[in-house]
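Support case: zinc ion complex. Customer-provided input:
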Amino acid sequence: MKRTPLRRKTQLKRNPQREPGKKKDLIKYQHSPLPKHNGNGIGNGFGKDVKEAVRERQYDVCAMCTAPMFAFHHRRMRSQGGPGSVENCLGLCLDHHILVHNRVNWAYRHGLLVRSTRDPRDITGFLLCPVECEINHVDY
Ligand SMILES: [Zn+2]
Ligand SMILES: [Zn+2]
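Agent response - structure generated as follows:
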């Protein structure tokens, strides 16, 4: 392999704090082009087309209220093998996204979360029921 000798034109500074631009320069070379952070984790599996389709389906607001969409929620979670499909995606506002993940049993009963053994395409989401609703809308 041909080697190009690396020579500094200026003397190396001992105190790195004297070069505030240095860190930024290093980061540029450390990272390969990974998907950028989009507010919903890195590389969440929903492609641009899926997100656009979901925005269109929900008129760009939360599926459960009229607040702006904050997260693209996986109905069947990624850890459960949930696909990055339109059917598996639910656009939610910040509060409803927290609610769905805090009230897991309710969310499963209402199809807002889908078990690993089920296909999200077969499960209807019951979005308008209050969190106190004890009905099993989804039969597992
Ligand atoms: Zn909402
Ligand atoms: Zn209900």
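The pocket of zinc ion (ligand 1) is lined by residues 62, 64-65, 67, 92-93, 95-96 (CB under 6 Å).

Case will auto-close in a few days if no follow-up is received.
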